[in-house]
Amino acid sequence: MHVRRLEALLGALQSTEDYSQRVASILEWTVAALGADGAALFELGAPPSRTVSVLASCGSLSPAADRVGALWTRTAMPRERGMAVLPAGIVSRDCVFAVPLDLASVVSRIALVLHGPDIDEKAREFDVDLRLVSSLLREGVELERMRRQIEHEKQLAAILTGRDGSPPNDGLPGLALLTDGLGLPLYVCDARGKFLYASPSFLALTGYPAFTALVDADGFFVDPKARADELETARSAGKVSSFPLAVHSGAGARLEMHDSTVSLGDSFFGVFFDVTALMAKNAELKDALQIQELLNDSIIAGTKTLQRTQGAAIRTLARLAEYRDPETGIHLQRICEYTRLMAMQVYERAPYSFRITKEKAEDISMSSMLHDIGKVSIPDHILLKPGKLDAAEWEMMKKHTVYGWEVLHKADRELGEQSFLTLAASIALSHHEHYDGTGYPNGQVGEQIHLSARISAIADVYDALTSDRPYKEAWSHEQAVAEMVEQSGSHFDPVLVDIFRDIHPEFADVRRVFPG
């Protein structure tokens, strides 16, 4: 009987691409096959909220639904034949996690919870089938994550550009802040191709003295129909696309461009690259292969340029703290450099049972700049007090960790998927936790503290020790190193302290490059 039910399940999954319906079909099969009272797909939230939400359910899960949150904070889940079984007393004896733990992510964990009489024995009996549905669930979650990632990128771009129907160019201050410092020849246009924004570098590249002159130009694109076709292609692609196109400069000259653009909701976000000289070289050399390779390099460069906007966005958010605390600016730059040194060593040495990628190391470095963003919520009479804080003031100051986590986590959740804000939120919350559990705000111990926060703690404390404060003079590099080593295993992760002890001269070099 269960074979026919399994065949029916696979048929139902093949008949729909709707994520919710696929998950519901899997849960219905699970309840029917095991004779369970209920099944649900749970998402276990990250500290400090420790929230538990049900993504989908079938049947009754009481009392499991009321007590499953305790599992997140009180115990690790043991494995049994590839499954993670709930220990007795945590939820109830007849509940079992059937989704493998490698479905975990940075912010949350997703688990299939089953409830019913003798469910442990039935789970063992249907072990092979449960492995299959677990795989189907994992596949469905990953596909949904990828779908949402595309929407997430669109929403993130909308947040950065501030598109709200304001007048062209002047209505995009957030985008201007990012592009002016980076010198990108960047533009934003609406669905019909009308320019909404053009950076100073874009205007200089195309030879227009002002944005209004660009908007009023008659025949900017040599072939308007080809341009319209390119935008339609980019909209359908849903990712960064590159096109060759020709435009008329402000002086009337023909310019050959490569446009790297991406569709963001109802608008397009793109970067121009002048390949006029390159095209002339192509005509001279008559070497199509060589010119294509050079153009490909330009396309790759355009894609990387768009990715740089994420780093610029982090710096923009981090500057919020500078408006409240004038010491923060150079401090943030040093923190970024210190965490990069440590994170790259973790990437290269792989000292833990898990590995991080080079990209993750860079993300940790950039996200660390937002570690003190919560200080914007601390009153001036505490944040800017020239002397030491009293007990009540100190308790208020410590809340900057939770304030920072709340604002970053809320923004991350509104985007609907993990982003660079995910790491930043973890760092903001936990960079004052101590390895022995004596830190704040949650008293986390050891590897309960996110790796990014443990790395940021090394950087933050070293910078604090070697900086002047109203209540103390800066320590020497040697004194700071000795103190950091002394705190190994208490304040700091001993693995990271060993790395710090090997590379501490590079910390001193950063301090010399960014003094203050």
Structural overview:
It is a single chain. The chain is of the alpha+beta class and 516 residues long. The protein folds into three domains: 2-154, Beta-Lactamase; 173-306, Beta-Lactamase; 323-513, Orthogonal Bundle (Hypothetical protein af1432). It is 54% helix and 13% strand. It has helices at residues 2-14, 19-34, 64-67, 69-74, 119-125, 127-161, 173-182, 200-206, 211-216, 224-237, 276-285, 288-322, 328-349, 358-367, 380-383, 391-398, 400-415, 420-430, 451-465, 477-486, 494-513, and strands at 38-44, 52-59, 79-80, 83-84, 95-97, 109-115, 186-190, 195-198, 241-248, 254-264, 267-274. The strands form three sheets. Strands 8-7-11-10-9 form a five-stranded antiparallel β-sheet, sandwiched between helices. A four-stranded antiparallel β-sheet has the order 2-1-6-5, covered by helices on one side. Strands 3-4 form a two-stranded antiparallel ribbon.
Quick take:
The chain is α+β, with helices and mostly antiparallel strands and 516 residues long.
